[in-house]
Amino acid sequence: MKTIKILNYIFVAALGFFAVMFGINRLGDKQSQFAGDTTLYTEEYCQDIIGFNDIIPLEINMINGKIANINILDNKETPRFLQKVTDAKLVENFYGLTPKEAINLEIDAVSGATYSSNAIIQSVKTRMEVYDKEANPSPWTWQLFGIIGCAIVLIVLSILGRRF
Description:
Layout: H1 2-27, E1 37-41, E2 58-63, E3 66-72, H2 79-87, H3 99-104, H4 114-135, H5 139-163
Antiparallel strand pairs: 1-2, 2-3
Helix pairs in contact: 1-5
């Protein structure tokens, strides 16, 4: 009987160890999550980010985990303000950046189009935060899953051990 309990504990410990190692192993896979081309849209994620008149929807094209292009989609902004943003090449500051680099980019608003440029900057950063979280789920989730799984297995084995 004692031997079965000891084997149960060893089994649960091994299961927990593998769950933790799987989570840690996922830390090294982050760059592979960004492989390929992806088109992202900001509208769904940036409803509370308002320019001068309304939201400014963007299309962000990613190639191999870096921002390749940003297109300003149809919006209700005053055209002359958006022209200032376009002339200042504001969105080009994000080109070639990874999501984390884009999130941390320090960039000033365009003078004379402050609301519009701040909305564009914030929309890009917000969408990159969402994309980064989707592409790189926390490895600690797997570790928590492993710990809960181990606890369930330990409880089941303890119940079965008492019956036999």
